[in-house]
Predict the structure.
Amino acid sequence: MQSGPSPFKRLKRHLLATPLDGLMSVLLLALVGWVATTTLHWLFVDADWQVVSQNLPLYAFGSYPPHQRWRPCLWIALLIGLTLLTLLGPRRGWIRKALPLVWIAMVPCGVVLLAGGLGLLPIPSHAWGGLTLTLLLTACSGALALPLGILLALGRQTSLIVIQRSCSVYIDVMRAVPLIAVLFFGQLLIPLFLPMHLEVNRVLRAVLAFALFAAAYIAEDVRGGLQAIPRTQREAAAVLGLSPKQIIQLVVLPQALRTALPALTNQAVGLLQNTSLMAILGLVELLGISRSLLANPDFIGRYLEVYVWLAGVYWLVCTAMALLARHLEHQLSPTRFATSKR
Amino acid sequence: MIPAIQATGLVKSFGDHQRALDEVSLHVESGQVLVVMGPSGSGKSTLIRTFNGLESLDEGRLEVLGIPLDADHDERQIRRIRKRVGMVFQQFNLFPHLSILDNITLAPIRVQRRPRKEAEGRAIDLLTQMGIAEQAGKYPGQLSGGQQQRVAIARALALQPEIMLFDEPTSALDPERVKEVLDAMRSLANNGMTMVVVTHEISFAREVADRVLFMDEGKVVETSSPDEFFANAREERSRRFLNQMM
């Protein structure tokens, strides 16, 4: 093998080919250097990170009663452990098979741990907050929105005209309204539909509104997956004597969801980030707790520190989600979707 | 004895233009192999797809295994027939998300409610019969076209059908893969399976068919024994078609 030109020569060729190139290179390098030093200087010298370091429990749990903090703590630890197990754990065997169920179980598990009951001291929902609340909002609304979205997508495909039209109208309306409006409607309207004595708490109302909204988008992603499945797949299933329900459940949906998975990942990440809108409704999730901290005279003016920190936390959680999604995609299609080579 | 398929005056049209099936009548005795030939667009596929309700009829009387399947397109009747009639498609249509074994056992387990063990044992037997038992754990995308088509045959046979329908089973295959599929079909016919086969494979038709039905423009042009059909077809249109094929 021939060795290429030395690194120095390569650099010279890429950066200093002509005088104009040279000038541009120098200017750009200077700009990059200046931005990097300013940022680092701010991060390590100018910034006062006390607003973060003194309030870590608040960011994590909100105003959850201190002696009960082990509960959200346990839930987050379980989530982290499960993430690591999924990403790094065994590739085969019963653990792998149980993982999807365990992940689904994390949703009710989180609700019970936070809300109490089953022998745990009940904690009212206004005390929930911080990262715990952000994760709980994401998990609950996702767990509600996914089945609802699948039903909407299937409904849009049926031959029953009433169902088909109402699903279409629902999806179109939800996609035409901004999320924040849906959230406000949820806070104001859901109580109107329910009898007086049955008060639905704010978190539940937010989750419901959020799930109803996200379901419309999920429905469109699933529809894309459904359309990618050739009609002949349904025919092949039908001639085997499978019932219409079995055809959907065993042949159509498993393939459609795999095809829709990248788009659904997008929705999941979007779901997490959109929970920050609930700060406007007065929920003290990550953004909400940050805003209330900034209102504290001790930390006045520390906007940049707080928002940089927040960006970091969101980035970390979103990255974990993206890794999990990529892992899932990989698991579901080792060689199976290789187009048939003859 | 009830004929396997008895059709009288079948009519089917798509949209306004010419009829895909125009007064088609035929019958297939149990244990017989009927080969349907004809130029493309002649209605062969439409015809075979009416036999298990994939296409509905506009007019005519059709009885499959004694079960009527007329223009009213009754879903219950159709499912009763589908449980007793297997079908193999041109494009194999295996389920890409299931392993070969799961492709074959899906219907026996879910439709016939057989225990998994029994269904899997039978699936392996069928794969062995097709000469591809070693592929059981793979996925359709990993198999050649000829192998996939043999899996499709095994999948249809797993329900122990009384009639097998083949809709151009070798048309999507590379030439060197055709023989393995035809061999499988030949041994099926030798074991007494009632078969309706749409195909362009003349040597297969000549050797296996009990009768050859020639269609053109939605009509049955002639029905003859293969010897008669290939040696001296009665109709001008059949002779023209055969000249082009050979």
User: Anything to note?
Assistant: Residues 244-274 of chain A form the longest helix (31 residues).
